[in-house]
TrEMBL record:
Signal peptide: 1-22
Keyword presence, Ribosomal protein: no
Name of the molecule in the record: Membrane-bound lytic murein transglycosylase B
Record carries keyword tRNA processing: no
Organism, scientific name: Pelagibacter ubique
Length: 333
């Protein structure tokens, strides 16, 4: 009897947490099940029917999910593509057109304008490509798919809750294949936690300069960004560096230590003007991605600010690109 009871407990937990996300049913049947789930999560039938009436399965979203540049481009290629001189010029022009406002955001939120420009430049090329995908269909497709269904189901529920509370208009929800929206590509959970109606017009408009810059600054500030602290330094490693110190994944950086400890494993370690008490970690981002990549090249020591960028987008290359472009803006502005 105990075995039977435990079995039914297992089945209950499994179906309450997993069956909604399984792919052994059609998308239409999944959508019917998802509606039941949504109505139990503070979403009215009126809102669901209004927002989800035109949702469809998008096969190309699955293709994009399986073939992201973070998973196949080497670091040099990935970073150079996203930090070009043309991108610096476009960002500088945007800054000059909104100089007073962007400076005020820098000061108010204690987040460098160079970082905000770098994030916007890499995410949407300064608002010129915010994406044209139907976000609700994208999120539904990724929720239906097995690979990351739990994460995207939560995001889909969140965006519907925002529609329910009139925080965002479902008619404007067009963005990236992964469900991100606006100039800085906020996911629904990020909109819920950090987006700001900065111009006080009762609408959070993340494709507008004011709301989007303020929201991005609020987000990066709230997760712990430290103004005027370094992101990373590129280093050449000595061959005696312990393998356990090398990070090849962005999921969780391990074996962090003070720079005075880590610097013993890098060449020309006296040339870096870094506080010896600053904690960092060593990353070798190509090793687990690029076939035949060198064990110790390229290599970087990354600091706490870099990890904040990973909270924005958990990709070692994305973090390096943002911080590289940030440094270029600091020299250009």
């Amino acid at each position: 009897m105990k075995i039977t009871r435990n079995f039914f407990i297992f089945i209950f937990l499994f179906f309450n947490n997993s069956s909604l996300f399984a792919n052994d049913i059609s998308f239409d049947d999944w959508l019917k099940n998802f509606k039941i789930y949504a109505l139990k999560n503070e979403i009215s039938e009126t809102t669901f029917d209004k927002a989800m009436s035109h949702v469809v399965f998008l096969p190309k979203v699955i293709k994009y999910d399986r073939f992201q540049p973070e998973f196949y481009e080497d670091t040099k290629t990935y970073v150079s593509k996203r930090t070009s001189s043309l991108k610096v010029k476009k960002g500088t022009d945007l800054y000059k057109s909104n100089q007073s406002f962007i400076n005020s955001i820098d000061s108010k939120f204690s987040v460098e304008k160079s970082l905000l420009l770098a994030l916007m430049g890499i995410e949407t090329n300064f608002g010129t490509y915010v994406g044209k995908m139907d976000i609700l269909s994208s999120l539904a497709t990724l929720s239906f798919d097995k690979r990351r269904s739990k994460f995207f189901t939560k995001e889909l529920i969140t965006i519907l809750q925002l529609v329910e509370r009139n925080k965002i208009d479902h008619n404007i929800l067009y963005g990236s294949w992964a469900g991100a929206f606006g100039n800085f590509q906020f996911m629904p959970s990020t909109i819920e936690k950090y987006a700001i109606d900065y111009d006080k017009d009762d609408v959070i408009e993340l494709k507008s300069t004011k709301d989007s810059f303020a929201s991005a600054a609020n987000y990066i500030n709230k997760i712990g960004w430290k103004k005027n602290q370094p992101c990373f330094i590129k280093v050449s490693l000595n061959k005696n560096v312990p393998k356990k110190l090398l990070n090849t994944s962005a999921k969780k950086l391990h074996n962090k230590n003070k720079f005075k400890i880590l610097k013993q494993y890098i060449k020309d370690n006296e040339t870096y003007s870094i506080s010896e008490n600053l904690f960092g970690a060593i990353i070798t981002p190509d090793k687990d991605i690029i076939p035949d990549a060198e064990n110790l090249e390229p290599a970087y020591i990354v600091f706490d600010n870099y990890e904040k960028i990973l909270q924005w987008n958990r990709s070692l290359r994305f973090g390096l690109a943002v911080c590289t472009l940030k440094n270029k803006f600091e020299n250009a502005l």
